[in-house]
Amino acid sequence: MAFEQAPLPYDPGALEPSGMSAETFSYHYGKHHKAYVDNLNKLVADTELADKSIEEVIQTSFKEGKTGIFNNAAQAWNHSFFWNCLNPSGGGAPTGAVAEKINSDLGGYDKFKEEFKTAAATQFGSGWAWLVLDNGTLKVTKTPNAENPLVHGQVPLLTLDVWEHAYYLDFQNKRPDFIQNYLDQLVNWDYANQNLAAA
Ligand code: MN3
């Protein structure tokens, strides 16, 4: 049983008016994400990990220092999660329970935005910025390369991919503009609320 790349939750051109082009999706989903899934399947073929859930593969390979498997499993998972964090009608202020918790745990939406922008902009090299639930409290974090909150016992609510491949076609070297665009035009608070409700 092979791991599969989940379909995008929208048409690859659907986010173009919101600043993320179909060309970006053709590379980011069609090449980068696909390669992580394909590599994962090659690396776990004929091992006991082939029949585990991808979350179990992530935890086990991280604990056991199986870097190649971890990197590809986590990147396969991170990207599937990331596509759901984007919405053609997304962006702007949070809603629902997440909004209330951002007020109580992070000091409000404006403070969240500053903290998230700083995390995403200061992740040196490749990585991810996250909004997570950590022991019942919201936190903004950043992780290098493929690392994700699952291996730190946290529940991810939202993420932004800050690998250069995520923004170079649309924003070139201007990572801060890509981050701002995510917050203003793309972020899917409904998905964050679903993840919070399921936590
Ligand atoms: Mn990526």
Overall description:
The protein has 199 residues and is mainly alpha-helical. It folds into 2 domains: 21-84, Orthogonal Bundle (Helix Hairpins), CATH 1.10.287; 96-198, 3-Layer(bab) Sandwich (minor pseudopilin epsh fold), CATH 3.55.40. 53% of the residues lie in helices and 12% in strands. The protein has 8 helices and 3 strands. A 3-stranded antiparallel sheet has the order 2-1-3, sandwiched between helices. Strand 1 and strand 2 form a beta hairpin. Helix 1 (22-44) runs antiparallel to helix 6. It is globular. The mean pLDDT is 97. The structure holds manganese (III) ion.
List the secondary-structure elements in sequence, H or E: HHHHHEEEHHH
Stretches with pLDDT under 50, minimum 5 residues: none
Helix content: 40-55%
Number of helices: 8
Instruction: Report strand order across the widest sheet.
Output: 2-1-3
Mean pLDDT: 97
Number of DSSP strand runs: 3
The profile of the biggest β sheet is: 3 strands, antiparallel
Task: Count up the domains.
Answer: 2
- Structural class call reads mainly alpha
